[in-house]
Each structure stands twice: as C-alpha cells, then as structure tokens.
Amino acid sequence: MSVAQYYLLDTFARVPFKGNPTPVCLLTDELSTQTMFMLAEEFNAPVTAFVATASDELFKIRYFTGTGEIPACGHATLGAAHILLNQNPDFERIVFVTIEGVKIIANKERDLVYLVYPVYERKDYEIPGELLEALGVEQIASHFYCDELESLFIELKDDSAVRSIRPDFEKLRKSSDEVKEVVIMSESKSDDADFILRSFCPWIGIDEDPVTGSIHSVLGPYWKERTGKTELIAFQASKRSGEIFIQVTDNSVKIGGPSKILVDGTLDLS
C-alpha cells in the first residue's frame, strides 16, 4: 500500500553528502503517530518530516526523531519547502502549520528557499557547571537562553575553539532537564561567513546536528547587533558542514539555503 511520496534530501547543501540528511514524506494516506515514529526510526536520520496537504498552499507538517516527536525543525521544513515549491512553480509561497499551530511561510528566491520565523527573545541563564564540564569549556565570551527553542547559546573567543570541542554526550544529556540543545558559536575568521556554530542535542537523540535551521531566529538578531549587518551567512562546522543564509528585519528572520534531492520514490507499507 503506497502511503506517501518519499524523498531523501541533503538540506543546506548544493552537493550530496553535505548539509543535513533529511527524509521527507508527502503523505497520500493518513498515518498514525506510532507509524510515523517507527518510520523515523527506520530512516535513522536526525529528523524526518511528514507533510499532509490542508489546501492549495497550506500544509500540515510534523517532525520525528529516533526518540519521538518534536515540535519544530528548520532543516526538515526547508527540505519539505524545497520539494513543494519546485513541484508547484506557480506558488509564490506556501505555509506550513506545525503540531503546535505555528505557521511558517516559505518562498523561493533564485536557487534558495527561505523560511520566515518570528524573532525569539534571549534571556539570561545560569549555566550548570556540569554542562560546561561535559562540553570541556572553561572560558566563554557570552551566553543566553531561548525559552521557545529550549536552547542555550554559548559564544567562545574564536572559531578554532568552536571547531575543537569534543563533548561527553552522556554527561551533557544528564547535565540539565531544561536545556534541549546547546549551540556553540563564534565570529568567523573566514571572509566566507559572518559566524560559525555547532549544535549539540543529545536530549532529543541527536548528539550533533549536522546543520540547524530554526535557531537562527535567535542567532540572526544577535549577530545583526554584533556586526551591523541585516544579511548574514553562517557556517555550521559539523563533520558534514553547511551554509545558512539569514535576512533579519525588526519583526522576523528569514532563514534560507539550498537543498539537494538524492532519492525520489514511493513509500509502500503493504
């Protein structure tokens, strides 16, 4: 029984084996939550997106990791938007609705797909000593927390410090019940990017996220203040690596990137 069109993409990448490996299922039949979770386990990627058509340009989207459902995922939304906007070139934009009712607008600008996110607030946060110990970090330049994303952001003195981190993921997972993601960042030494980052999420079953999208709703405004730029390029210094293109306004952040489709097929559960 065919239940979906299945795609495997590398998001935030122009070539295979870079960026974030992203399964996307465009559903042609309704699937239970348990079935979607088992499929995400089967695909064994950081996040799998399941998309159902609500109306012509409105789509419901859900996200699953190997440990369960999560409320948001930028790179999986980017992959779904890349497929739908290329399948429907007459659409000026599409709108996704998440399980929490959040609406995410997507549009295409030249060869890049952009997602529109609200600007999320930053707040002060006392970092547990166990968390810093798990990261192997002793000195930080700045840090802050975002409630909406349950994410802790830590700026280090330079990009070599970011690249050299080797976390103890089991210790990191046990270091906090509040944090679900730690983002390590610094200003970039390269002219090709404004800042670099890495993202660690052992709390949701992803030790290191290859490339991360939604956190730039926080990072975009922060690095706009630091650099004075409204258009920024971020480089994610994971093993696979990827580039994120960011446009910042007063009320929103556009997060963009390319995607490469590797597999296009049918999902059969008969």
TrEMBL record:
Q: Would the keyword Nucleotide-binding be found if you checked this record's keyword annotation? A: no
What Pfam families does the annotation carry? PhzC-PhzF
InterPro entries (alphabetical): Phenazine_PhzF-like (IPR003719)
Q: What GO CC annotations are associated with the protein?
A: cytoplasm
Q: Which UniProt keywords apply?
A: Isomerase
Q: Does the keyword Isomerase apply?
A: yes
Q: Which GO terms describe its molecular function?
A: isomerase activity
- Gene3D superfamilies, sorted: Diaminopimelate Epimerase, Chain A, domain 1
Q: Which residues form a coiled coil?
A: none
Say which family it is in.
Answer: Belongs to the PhzF family.
SUPFAM superfamilies in the record, alphabetically?
Diaminopimelate epimerase-like
Protein name (database record):
PhzF family phenazine biosynthesis isomerase
In terms of superkingdom, the source organism counts as Bacteria
